[in-house]
Specification:
about 270 residues; 11 helices
Length: about 270
């Protein structure tokens, strides 16, 4: 038991050092306007293509969300479209580490479905496709979505821990790609994030699922446009600070304590 606690402490220390190294890397490599040198032209083009792809995926997700809300409205359920997402986010916040393998499989299948769904349309916008393939787009995007979703689902089942680490590392790298086109920096962050995710999987999954789930839950229910939307900052008389962010942070740390307590001396991924 003591050895396990020491191992977890070492991983948390490693997390802090890795975060510090990533911050140092951000200052060591040129970003923003300075990163647009000719040597980074290919990287900038790749980032632009990736940005277009993710914009299409995000638009698809919004259309699915609108269809989901429209379906429940047609059934007379109205605002109940917030209930299912809220329950899923609550489960993610409280049991993210316990359900990490399931989350990995579902997330991989979901990513595969979205990529496959917009893949042909993205290819048509980016490249010149044969006429017969463009005419196949309305049906082909559903076929491609199913195929890519199944493939990524099987890969997630096969890779397990490695697959989850790859998802985490790719997410960090893609978020950073929105701020810099420096290929060396992006590849370095991808490699460091992947290795770190393998080493410190448990605390990383606990922190990510607790905080992201809590922030998303608060945003879904209480912030502007949410099911129970109202201005907490104005109610409390707070100026220059979004009080709901503070609530999300507090809720996230409570969920971290719950998950660490719930998974003590246990390993699920």
């Amino acid at each position: 038991m003591r050895a396990l606690e020491e191992s977890i402490l070492k991983k948390k220390i490693l997390l802090s050092w890795t975060a510090a190294l990533c911050l140092l890397a951000l200052t060591a490599f040129p970003c923003g306007a300075e990163s647009s040198a000719p040597a980074d032209g290919l990287a900038a083009e790749a980032v632009g293509i990736a940005d277009n792809l993710f914009s299409m995926i995000f638009g698809t997700l919004l259309s699915f969300w609108s269809a989901y809300r429209g379906l429940l409205d047609a059934w007379g359920l109205g605002v109940c479209y917030f209930v299912l997402p809220a329950l899923l986010l609550l489960v993610l916040s409280l049991f993210g580490y316990r359900l990490s393998r399931l989350i990995s499989v579902v997330l991989s299948a979901g990513i595969g479905f979205c990529v496959g769904y917009v893949g042909l349309e993205f290819a048509a916008d980016t490249f010149v496709l044969p006429t017969w393939l463009e005419s196949f787009l309305p049906i082909g995007k559903w076929v491609a979505a199913a195929i890519v979703a199944i493939v990524l689902l099987l890969i997630a089942l096969w890779l397990r821990r490695v697959g989850l680490a790859l998802i985490l590392a790719s997410t960090v790298t893609l978020l950073l790609a929105g701020y810099t086109a420096n290929l060396t920096l992006l590849l370095s962050v991808l490699a460091v994030s992947f290795v770190f995710a393998l080493i410190a999987m448990k605390p990383l999954v606990i922190y990510i699922t607790s905080l992201s789930g809590s922030f998303a839950l608060v945003r879904l229910l209480f912030r502007r446009g949410g099911a129970l939307s109202f201005d907490l900052s104005a109610t409390l008389g707070i100026v220059g600070l979004d009080a709901w962010l503070v609530v999300g942070l507090i809720l996230g740390f409570l969920c971290i304590l719950f998950q660490e307590r719930f998974s003590k001396n246990r390993r699920y991924c």
